[in-house]
Amino acid sequence: MKKFACLLYSVICLAVCAVPGVMLFGKGEDTSTAEKRQLAEMPSFKDENNNWNKNWSSEFQSYVADHFGFRQQLVNIDSHLKADLLHISAEEQVIIGKDGWLFYTPTVNDYLGKPTVSEMGIKNIRHNLEMMQEFSELHNSQFLVAIVPNKNSVYGEYMPENYQKLNQTNNYTNLMQELENSTVPAVDLLSAFNKEELLYHKQDTHWNNTGALLGYRAIMDKTGKEYQDFSDAEYHIERNWEGDLQNMLFPESEVLDDNAIYDISFDYLYQGHYHDTDDININTISPNGTGSVLMFRDSFGAAIIPYFSQNFQMARYSRARPNPLSNLETTQFDLTILEIVERNIAWLQKEAPLHSALKAETIPETENSGTAEMFTDRNGTYLQFYGTVELPENLTSAPEYIFTLKDTTGKISGYRAYNCYESDKLNTEEISDNGWSLYISSAELTENETYQAELNVILPEGNFSCALGEFVFEQE
User: CA nearest 346: which of 427, 419, 426, 399?
Assistant: First the structure.
């Protein structure tokens, strides 16, 4: 009996000691997609310089926190307890609304009426969109921008009562008002929507097929082109949609959301490799379509791909960053669409689209009295120049930037830069209003040539220039 008790005690001790291992190497699924972030990876004992990794301990703790066994089940239990008993969200990225509605936390500032883009930032975005339009039209392509409203901009009545609007202006309203005085055709999807039918998924960040169809019609109406509107298409509801917010909040949930399934016989075909609508590049052809379209899109673009693909003989969709407007330099498209969700409006001031910079028709004479910084980077066959400049205070309009390169023969080439603050490359979280950025094709530069770079700043208050230093072009 004593031997059995000792054996039982030993087994229990071994089992207790094994718990951490089971928790670490047990059932630990990859939840990076559901949580909209990349989970921590197993750290290396050596750093990039082959020295001892001083951060190994903290990095290993992060790895264990993300990958321990049964993590999903425990997170799911915790989320249900908080949601069901306290009606609060255990996931900081998810807001629990009324009547089963879930909302995405990064949309809160837009909903409350707290603009995150400054007045000058909005003017910079207008300037950037006008330049994209100019480049598109230079390549015989009609350009327009479509900003998809956040879900709570359409269904704010389902937000929790403690989220009280401060005012009715935000990035969306400010930009739409600014574009009223611009040449850029902008689709006001918020005004185009009516809520006679459900337009967004209750448990997801995105619009459903009905909302996407209304968005497609509003965009095509703005083009002035004839198109298939699918107005006679009937639909039925199936509960088969896995909501991204539902999965973030309840990782083990099997609850599905309603989805509108339209009775439309699509006969367009995918060209090249196609996996799913998350692909960076998607190409389609339609035997019964007409014309061609190039669309830069985000995740909201996935639901409208079928409608555009059926309508156009050739369609190309890109999620690449930065937006490769360079597609127009190699392929003719009748229409170019920039689709972006409301919460990402600031991105339009964050990174310049990828294409050969527009040439400056004239280079004004200016005094070299300014201060700016310049960085360079490569993107395929393009060389990027970007940086920041010290601007006068209280500007009333967006600056016009002309970037010049002077070679050893004295020849000066001028290019127009976007008003973009490349925050990712500048390693800053905030997007400032004093950034500039452009791409120049390497074919326009001479190998081993030494150039003097300069930035000319054109303002109603007065022009000035900034010496940026010497630059030697070398082929990779």
Answer: 419
- Asked if 297 and 336 count as a contact pair (C-beta separation under 8 A), the reply is no
Whether residue 430 is found in the same domain as residue 342 = no
The pLDDT tens digits of the residues spanning 297-338 come to 999 999 999 999 999 999 999 999 999 999 999 999 999 999
Residues 158 and 217 in one domain: yes
Q: What is the CATH number of the domain that holds 463?
A: 2.60.40.2440
Kind plus residue range of the DSSP H or E element containing 173: helix 171-179
How many domains does the structure of the chain reveal?
A: 2
375 is written with which tokens? 């960085």
Looking at this protein, which amino acid is placed at residue 461?
A: E
Rounded-to-10 torsion of CA 276, 280, 284, 289: 110
Q: In what order do the strands lie in the sheet with 382-389?
A: 372-379, 382-389, 435-441
47 within domain boundaries: no
pTM for the whole thing? 0.83
The answer to whether 404 and 439 have CB atoms below 8 angstroms apart is no
* CA 171 centroid distance within chain: 15
Task: Output b/e per residue, 437-465; b: 16+ Cβ within 10 A.
Answer: bbbbebeebeeeeebbbbbbbbeeeebbb
Contact 437, 417 (CB under 8 A): yes
> How far is Cα 345 from Cα 5, in angstroms, rounded to an integer?
68
The CA angle 333-337-343, to the nearest 5 degrees, is 160
In a domain, 93, yes or no: no
Which residues neighbour 123 within 8 Å (Cβ) at sequence distance 6 or greater?
A: 178, 397, 398
